[in-house]
Design a protein that fits this description.
15 strands, Ribosomal Protein L25, Chain P, RNA Polymerase Alpha Subunit, Chain A, domain 2, alpha+beta, single chain, 7-stranded mixed β-sheet, elongated, 5-stranded mixed β-sheet
């Protein structure tokens, strides 16, 4: 388990651009620290260590970075992965001030059992992170939302339903849906088949001749026959 309170030790790097692939092949990940308008600091760290730190800290947990005698309080602002191998390729850190509010991306956790799932319905997840603003000390590791509200079809929970701790401001729109109760593909398919069957039955009934229609046809034939006789006479 990663201890996020332990300083993350990084090394300064002079390797840039074309030389980065060689650096990665040696087990390092290039990174950069942006520092409030100051020149960016180019650093590197071990791939396995930084990968585990990113999984635990995400983009919301403040980290103590140490490069030699220099120390920075920072958030991970971005992380790039190789799309094929899913290996960490690059990390961008943003230095922050303990006394200044910062923006961060915090994960959402559905709290409690979901009644709709017990009745065979499905939950459509539409949002798993929200943007917030807070002092570094007030940044939460996650925001909870009561999932027991998801009971019937079309029930939903939105950002407005999140449990927000003191000192935290949510920047994501309150109306943005987080999760909604929907039917499973099997249920939708079954309903479509039922509807198609019903429509086919209606078409057959509409296309069938009625008794009145038969009588009208006979009367028409009789009338035409009588007219022909009169014409001959």
């Amino acid at each position: 388990m990663v201890d996020l309170d332990t300083p993350v030790k990084l090394q300064e790097r002079t390797v840039v651009r074309k030389g980065l692939n060689n650096l990665r092949s040696e087990g390092f990940v290039p990174a950069v620290i942006h520092n409030h308008g100051q020149p960016s600091v180019h650093v590197m760290g071990l791939e396995m260590e930084l990968g585990n730190i990113y999984k635990a800290a995400g983009k919301h947990h403040p980290l103590q970075l140490q490069i030699g005698s220099q120390k920075y309080l920072a958030l991970i602002k971005d992380a790039h992965f190789n799309p094929a191998k899913r290996r960490l390729q690059h990390i961008v850190f943003q230095a922050i001030n303990q006394n200044e509010k910062v923006e961060a991306e915090v994960p959402i956790r559905l709290d409690g059992e979901i009644p709709a799932e017990k009745t065979g319905l499905m939950i459509l997840h539409q949002l798993d992170h929200v943007e917030i603003e807070a002092l570094p000390k007030d940044l939460p590791d996650e925001l909870k939302v009561d999932a027991t509200k998801l009971v019937e079809l079309q029930d939903k929970i939105t950002v407005a339903d999140l449990q927000i701790p003191e000192g935290v401001t949510v920047l994501t729109e309150p109306e943005h849906p987080i999760a909604m109760v929907v039917e499973t593909k099997a249920q939708i398919s079954e309903e479509e088949e039922t509807t198609e069957t019903a429509e086919e039955g209606e078409e057959e009934v509409e296309g069938a001749p009625t008794e009145g229609g038969k009588e009208e046809a006979v009367d028409k034939e009789s009338s035409e026959s009588g007219d022909q006789k009169k014409s001959k006479e």
